[in-house]
Amino acid sequence: MSKAKTDGAITTTQPVKFYQVGSFAVGNRLVDPSLRTVQADAARTNAITSGHRACQGCGEALGARYVLDAAMRATGGKLVAVNATGCLEVFTTPYPETSWQLPWLHSLFGNAASVATGVAAALEVQGRNDVRVIAQAGDGGTVDIGFGCLSGMFERNDDVLFVCYDNEAYMNTGVQRSGATPPAARTATTEAVGREPGNPFDQGKNLPRLAMAHGIRYVATATVADLHDLEAKVERAMDFRGARYLHLLVPCPLGWSSAPADTIRIARLAKESGLFPVFEAVDGEVTAASGIRRLVPVEEYLRLQGRFRHLFDSSGAVAKTDIVARLQKLADANIERFGLLQPEVT
Amino acid sequence: MLSQLEGSRAVAGAVVCCRPQVVCAYPITPQTHIVEAIGASVKSRQLKHCRFINVESEFAAMSVAIGASATGARAYTATASQGLLFMIEAVYNAAGLGLPVVMTLANRAIGAPINIWNDHSDAMAVRDSGWVMLFAEDNQTATDLHVQAFRLAEELSLPVMVCVDGYVLTHATERVDVPTQEQVDAFLPPYKPRQVLDPADPVSIGAMVGPEAFTEVRYLAHAKQLQALERIGEVAGEFAEGFGRHSGGLVSTYHVEDAEVVIVALGSVLGTIKDATDELRANGARVGVVGITSFRPFPLDVLREAIGDARKVVVVERAFSAGFGGVLSTDVGLAISDAKARLSTVVAGLGGRAVTEAGLIGVFEDALGDRLEALRFLDLDKDVVDRELARMAGTRRSGPSAENVLRDLGTVASGAL
Ligand SMILES: Cc1ncc(C[n+]2csc(CCOP(=O)(O)OP(=O)(O)O)c2C)c(N)n1
Ligand code: SF4
Ligand SMILES: [Mg+2]
Fold this sequence. Notes:
The structure holds 2 protein chains of 2 kinds.
Chain A lengths: L2 H4 L1 H6 L45 H16 L4 E5 L3 H6 L11 E3 L5 H14 L6 E7 H6 L2 H10 L4 E6 L40 H7 L4 E6 L3 H13 L4 E6 L3 H4 L6 H10 L6 E4 L2 E5 L8 H6 L19 H16 L8
Parallel strand pairs in A: 1-2, 1-3, 3-4, 4-6, 5-6
Antiparallel strand pairs in A: 5-7, 7-8
Helix pairs in contact in A: 3-9, 5-7
Chain B lengths: L1 E5 H11 L4 E4 L6 H12 L7 E4 L3 H13 L4 E5 L1 H6 L1 H10 L4 E6 L13 H5 L6 E4 L3 H18 L3 E6 L7 E5 L3 H7 L16 E2 L8 H30 L7 E4 L6 E5 L3 H14 L4 E6 L1 E3 L3 H8 L4 E6 L10 H8 L6 E6 L9 H12 L6 E3 L4 H13 L6 H9 L8
The complex binds thiamine diphosphate, iron/sulfur cluster and magnesium ion.
């Protein structure tokens, strides 16, 4: 929930709806400074500083900076980050350079949650409860190879915020399918050939719901398209102690075959189509869902991405298969489940 | 303090005196009693300022230890066999990162076939991981090595594994002089990390390293092992001063001065080998024993010197490399490559098979009489093997070999844990 939206003060004291107010804009100088984003603050930490080697338009690079800068502000800079192997780890640290402006540890692909447990335990025994811990991994490092460690960390309720940067495939190794790859998406291991081109339907893991099933205090989803919402969730996550989970959709121009300039637009369409529900859950119950502002059919989202190109014919029309309709059904089910077309639930 | 107690309890007592701050536990026989006892110490507040974490796998156990160690806490865990293999990626990682984790390995065979009893296959599987690997001959040594392990690990920023034979030591009740808290506190200073995750002084640990620096970074791991080669003996000396007994060091020797035949071995089998030596010495045979305490770093020079002018060296190993032969033998062979001594490998005690004094006397006698082959599997029932080979040659679908062998022997397998 973005502050701009939740704080009634804005709408009551500012009856005139300025262009940027309540919009997705980041550097909005018309709102009260306290309600501006961390990113809009020149004094932000730049937890991942410039010069790293992510692709142009990388949603993961953006998402990680947003998350960590917000967490740095929320903790007064007392933060340790643990990273799984994956794009984020690789593009930030080709030795001897590092983009990390906070203490940072990379161990392996599948163990980020456990390493973070160890960091948190070590801080606790040394009486450093002021220092907080974030673990981060891609979708592969979260839903697949890292899931055992993650589930253990959740179940023990270790004091860690785990952030999954979900670009819906194993990007660092060249775009292979993960348990978070959506149906029909073309990856290097789910090619767009045969009767059911792309990734099969009826597979995959819904990690936010699995996280909720562990009964941890706080679970949230977000996209890089709504910075206010994302930052507010990171800040909220830092108000809780114990295991917390943030699932962030981060488009990947390379893996999704999309234009680097479309990263934010695609993330927004994922939410506005209902394919990626943005919500918050406390103690296992959904407490808020970000409503759809302008409902779009899923094809608007799909059309911008080469990984779904096989769903359209050469003229750009929806191809004569039921695949787009089946994807629309998934979006509709999300809209129904989370009440995404109802007035904001807060 | 002299006590009559189980090896696992003695080891746990020593570890508790070392004041670990994060201990990870995951059950696997025959290691489990150690972490159970430490857990009880934490719960009863005998061991304060320690987080005892019940993790969901050995991979997590070592990973938690990595995170804790990198955050400045003294970290410990214990495992065996399948558990070690399950955590192997993190085992290499701890060494690569230079984190001074201490782990007990209660040596046990690796399946398939699943087997809970002692041999050294697990330790050999991580031989090249970069850990310092110390082998205990008896429970006193096992206990004392743990105290020395933390000291060595933290001085050198290297993880140290203390290998303790499963059951033979972990479950044996015998007299052990368990260190007191005062003794350990005087010997082991608080952990001062070389690298630590600290918001006041942020560092990146675990960055990617390309071909331009990888060799140098990896060589440093070797250089630290060479430093360990120096320090292990010195630390044992300092331990002797503080505790009034000798434990540890690189190797131990027994009657090697004039020995014609020397047996080299690791771990608890050394006791039986020494008994066999006494027996043969009583009859005038010139036989001796070298026990290797420090398997990694491997003490090539010290071993060469200990073996001296023996004309025959026999390596008794509780592990082997299928398709090749001995594992430890390769290292011992390198140590004596300039000597005239002939080398034999005797693979013995796999999966808990008893290595008897009579069997070892036979080995010594065959070595003295030049009848020992280059590679011998002690007590191997060749007939059973040949019958299974014949079954396999005769029928394509001969079925699972382990079950065939058991059926052939008429043995009922004992329950696996
Ligand atoms: C145990 C292990 N298996 C496989 C790999 C190879 N690997 C490294 S990164 C990666 C993909 C990471 O995918 P994801 O977690 O989704 O992160 P992304 O790169 O997409 O951000 C893989 C398969 C590895 N490093 N370790
Ligand atoms: S492959 Fe994708 S996730 Fe990786 S750096 Fe490029 S855009 Fe980012
Ligand atoms: Mg990914």
